[in-house]
Amino acid sequence: xxxxxxxxxxxxxxxxxxxxxxxxxxxxxxxxxxxxxxxxxxxxxxxxxxxxxxxxxxxxxxxxxxxxxxxx
Length: 72
Prior knowledge:
By secondary structure, this protein is mainly beta.
């Protein structure tokens, strides 16, 4: 399993939302890996099971997504 770093930026594979990793924290019904959106880093946006972390990838670029060819 890849290592997730608190404050590191990630996203679901092939998805536009950019997330900040908040850590592995207790939340009501157990421990979850918690993520917030980059634009709201203090608000938990999603909670993820360890078994689902493989579907997240490190964000490669902080810039806005580039338009597809022909959409310019």
